[in-house]
Amino acid sequence: MSGTLDERIRAQQTRDPVHNLVTKVNSKQPAYLIWRWIAELTEAIAWLEYLGLAHGDLRPGNLLLDGGNHLKVSDFDCATAYGEASDGLPPPYARVLGADGGEDRNTFGYVGPRTEQFAIGSLIYLMTRGFEPYDSEWLGKDHETKMVSLLRAMKFPPTSDSEVDKVIRNCWYGNYTSVQALNTTVMEICPGIRSRMAKVLDEHVFESAEQECKRLVEEGILDVTQPRRFWYQPPLRQTRIALT
Questions:
Q1: Residue ranges in the chain assigned as alpha helix (H)
Q2: For residue 192, which of 29, 28, 39 has the smallest C-alpha distance?
Q3: Are 5 and 72 spatial neighbours (Cβ–Cβ below 8 Å)?
Q4: HEC readout, 140-192
């Protein structure tokens, strides 16, 4: 079954119609599948990191699941170079810095391993629990505001001593020096997971795509002069639409 991670998880929830909170998780994903998703997610984000980029918008709606239950990362229009100021994300996929932020207190800080792994930690929590952090308890009429405050104070939901929860906690506390280090840890926990992951496309597929991109540039359809973004120029029109 294809779709997004958000759709998959929500289909297995029962929600309170008043506060829209999760009251019951009707079924959960098998552990082997969750570990494969974690491996595929961290490997994809580690590759972006290698390019000096952060995805910048890691949340369930941007994670696609194909017919083989493999996870794909989508929606790169918020991709940002490491070291730039972070615009943040809605909780629980970004955290406003508290006292630990020093001069950057009460901001989202700067884009880098800390911001990416924090979002990944909350995504893993979602995968393993069947709901997002704080999505099963009513915090009051200012629910989201209180959630922001809890995250800023680093008062995270309880976790166990399991291997996956250790990864979640390390992500939330920013203990990994890089997303690559996080991915390496995941692979060490599940050494056989790589054989179950999605296969890299054949080289001729990349060559074909490269030739098509070159053709679009040569014909003036694709403008690559904008840094870190591609823009589509429709024929006979002046408006530009960002490709995501």
A1: 5-10, 31-50, 113-129, 143-152, 163-172, 179-189, 203-218
A2: 39
A3: no
A4: CCCHHHHHHHHHHCCCCCCCCCCHHHHHHHHHHCCCCCCHHHHHHHHHHHCCC
Phi, psi of 150 (to 5 degrees): -65, -45
Q: 64 is written with which tokens?
A: 């696609």
Note whether 39 and 72 are within 8 A (CB): no
Assess contact for 119 and 59: CB atoms under 8 A: yes
Rg of the chain over CA atoms, in angstroms? Answer: 19
Q: What pTM does this model have?
A: 0.81
CB 54 within 8 A of CB 112: yes
- pLDDT (tens digit, 9 = 90+) per residue, 23-82? 999 999 999 999 999 999 999 999 999 999 999 999 999 999 999 999 999 999 899 999
Q: Is the peptide bond before 235 cis (omega within 30 degrees of 0)?
A: no
**Residues recorded for the chain:** 244
Rounded distance, CA 157 to CA 23, Å? Answer: 16
| Residue 62 in tokens | 């941007």
Return the structure tokens found at 217: 């540039």
Instruction: Provide the CB-side half-sphere exposure for 51 (13 A, CA).
Output: 12
Q: List all residues 6 or more positions away from 185 whose beta carbon is below 8 Å from its beta carbon.
A: 167, 170, 176
Q: Based on the number of CB atoms within 10 Å of its own CB, is 206 exposed (0-12), middle (13-18) or buried (19 or more)?
A: exposed
